[in-house]
Amino acid sequence: MIYTVTLNPSIDYIVRLDKVLIGSVNRMDSDDKFAGGKGINVSRVLKRLGIDNKATGFIGGFTGKFITDTLEEEGISSHFVEVEEDTRINVKIKADAETEINGPGPDISSLKLEELKSILASLSADDTVVFAGSSPKNLGNTIYKELIGLTRKTGAQVVCDFEGQTLLDSLEFEPLLVKPNNHELGDIFGVKLESLDEIEKYARQILDKGAQHVIISMAGDGALLVTQEGAYFAKPIKGSIKNSVGAGDSMVAGFTGEFVKSKDAVEAFKWGVACGTATTFSNDLATAEFIKETYEKVEVEKR
User: Fold this and answer.
1) Per-residue pLDDT tens for 130-162?
2) Residues 6+ apart with CB under 8 A from 135
3) How many CA atoms lie within 13 A of 93 on its CB side?
4) Catalytic residue selected from 161, 197, 249, 264
5) Nearest to 275 by CA among 57, 26, 30, 45
6) If we measure between CA atoms, which residue out of 203, 205, 182, 206 comes closest to residue 194?
7) At a CB cut-off of 8 Å and minimum separation 6, what does 56 contact?
8) Are 139 and 166 contacting, i.e. CB atoms less than 8 angstroms apart?
9) pLDDT of residue 50 exceeding 80
10) pLDDT for 95-135, tens place per residue?
11) What's the CA angle centered on 57, arms 85 and 254, to 5 degrees?
12) Is 101 exposed, middle or buried (0-12, 13-18, 19+ CB in 10 A)?
């Protein structure tokens, strides 16, 4: 079974208007409310690919109920730890410039943290767990080391979608996949990466530190998979960009879902690229039909 862990989920409240006038009353043209959080996005895309999975993490209040109701409507099973405070709301304003206002999330007690640990400790070597996104403020991202270590002791594989030090900290646990973008990879090593050769060079350093597979996403310039066997470049696919939210999560879902089935890293990479690209060209997470249509356009070449 694939599990997704979202420690700080959200309702993503998206509002659209032509321009934001500071200090004035603004009237939106349209709005949407989505169950948000990186792990939850992974769960939703996996389900659209026909891959069963279970979502876990912390959830609370009326906002948390919106998320669990959404997952239930989409046929996604969940086992969240319920907390007293409300799950956060993130406001994403799409106007002449894109602006985000993210909530901090609830405080997590030591008792509730132990409940989540018991869920992770009950897994087995047949499971794969996706850890993604930020942690509630009172826990801090350092909690991931403890949770990932606990999960790996069960024999389960882990996928880690983080940035910076949190990504580096995860490497000692030999994650199945890490997926920084080219800018995040450069920031880790304090360099500006301008060529594919440079990107591959530093991605290999991430492999050397413990990762089993590294995908470097490069927005409109394609993506690079680096493994012990070789490096593979996915050419960019042309289309109208509508959405940056969830594209990376979609890529993680595509790779993880296919790899768990086939153990074929290149085929998994193709599905990851298809999912990520399809979401970029969609208003929300991509549909199964559009993902399959996009998959037919994916071109991967070995470097």
Assistant:
1) 999 999 989 999 999 999 999 999 999 999 999
2) 7, 8, 141, 143, 144
3) 16
4) 249
5) 45
6) 182
7) 3, 4, 5, 6, 78, 79, 80, 81, 116, 119
8) no
9) yes
10) 998 899 999 999 999 999 999 999 999 999 999 999 999 99
11) 140
12) exposed
**Full strand arrangement of the beta sheet holding 98-101:** 30-36, 10-16, 88-94, 98-101
* Rounded distance between C-alpha atoms, residue 48 and residue 169, angstroms: 31
Burial of 188 (0-12, 13-18, 19+ CB in 10 A): middle
Distance between CA atoms of 146 and 167, rounded to whole angstroms?
A: 14
In whole angstroms, what is the distance from residue 288 CA to residue 210 CA?
33
> What distance lies between CA 87 and its chain's CA centroid?
18
* Catalytic site includes residue 249: yes
Query: Residue 30 corresponds to which amino acid?
Result: S
